[in-house]
Amino acid sequence: MIFAGITAISVQAQTYFAGGSIGANYDNGKYSYGSSSTNRPSTFSLDFSPMLGIYVDEKIGVGVMLNLGMNIWNDRREEPTKDKKYEWGAGTFMRYTMLTRGDFSILIQGGAGIFGNFSKSTSGTTTNDGPKYFGFDISVMPLLSYSLTSNVSIEARSNLAKFGFTRQTEKRGTGDSLVKETESSFGFGLDCDDFFRSPYQLGLIFKF
Fold first, then answer.
1. 58-62, 107-111, 175-179, 203-207: lowest mean pLDDT where?
2. Distance, CA of 84 to CA of 71 (rounded, Å)
């Protein structure tokens, strides 16, 4: 239904836009004491989060977001241990441009999506499944945009102002030993006390 709706309105759309992130990180090292040394645990992570949308008019845009991630922790000391975690997510969003002054704009973006992850842990020759998570969230937040050119903009977002609801379920074990735990969270407000510590995100948006 989501893709059918976007396809239907794309006939009248003037502008498409795309953004997102991709990144990888590897961390490793050694610990030395006197003449002996040992390898420290290594960590490798990979994240891919594309975004694609359509501006149906000058102020309103709709789109979809995806997220794929992987994290591997590897300890090669005495008994080799490896933990693998895989994450995924998908959602839709709508954004509205509230105010434009020159190259600066203030937008409100609301979205809804689902997410989940699963993990595996290996110790020696034994591999066990870790906890599995599945959930959904709904959120609304402001965005600040600055146009570098007619086709490229910088967008900034923060947790200073937010409104959202998240519900997630964790499953551990199988069969008679299955444990299921559900958690819900709801939050809103303006966090002015945490202005300099609140996490900020910057990204590029390409219009075509």
1. 175-179
2. 6
Q: How far is it between the farthest Cα atoms of the chain? A: 71
pLDDT in tens, 189-208: 554 444 444 455 677 788 88
- Give the contacts of 138 (CB within 8 A, at least 6 positions apart): 110, 111, 112, 164, 165, 166
Structure tokens at 184: 């819900």
Tokens standing for residue 165: 């609801």
pTM of the complete model: 0.73
Residue 13 phi/psi, 5-degree rounding, is -70, 145
Q: Are 56 and 35 contacting, i.e. CB atoms less than 8 angstroms apart?
A: no
**Terminal-to-terminal C-alpha distance of the chain:** 24
Task: Please give the Cα distance from 92 to 4 (Å, whole number).
Answer: 13
